[in-house]
Amino acid sequence: MKRTTIFVPEALERDLQLYARREGKPTASVVREALAEYVARRTARGRLPSFTGAFASRRRDTAERHEELLFDKLRPHDSEPLPKAQLRR
């Protein structure tokens, strides 16, 4: 995680503090959630993130193998990885 500094009007900072306290969350967590939602909403309007298509894998089967590629090393709660046959349902 990277640290950053932002400047906000005092009234907004006060509202942010009150909201975070009411939700029982750290202020930084509320700010991260709000920024993530804002960015997701902006990119959902048809604009793709700047890194989209930035890498060429030279593979033609990526779409068909996406689950295998994404979840190959994923281990829920430190268990053994799923057999590849289960990934291809």
Secondary structure: elements and pairs:
Elements: H1 10-23, H2 27-43, H3 66-71, H4 84-87
Number of extended strands = 0
Helix residue percentage: 40-55%
Count the domains.
2
Rg of Cα set: 20 Å
What is the count of DSSP helices, taking H or I runs of 4+ residues? Answer: 4
Poorly predicted runs of 5 or more residues: none
Category by helix and strand content: mainly alpha
Task: Give the averaged pLDDT, no decimals.
Answer: 79
In angstroms, what separates the terminal alpha carbons?
Answer: 35 Å
Please indicate the percent range of residues in DSSP E strands (runs of 2 or more): under 5%
Overall body shape: elongated
Major β-sheet profile: none
* Element-by-element helix/strand order: HHHH
Structure in words:
This protein has 89 residues and is an all-alpha fold. It folds into two domains: 8-46; 61-89, no CATH class. 46% of the residues lie in helices and 0% in strands. The chain is built from four helices and no strands. Helix 1 packs across helix 2. The longest helix is centred in the middle third of the chain and has 17 residues, at 27-43. It starts with 9 loop residues before the first helix and ends with a helix. The mean pLDDT is 79.
Brief write-up:
With 89 residues, the protein is mainly α.
Descriptive terms for the model:
elongated, 89 residues
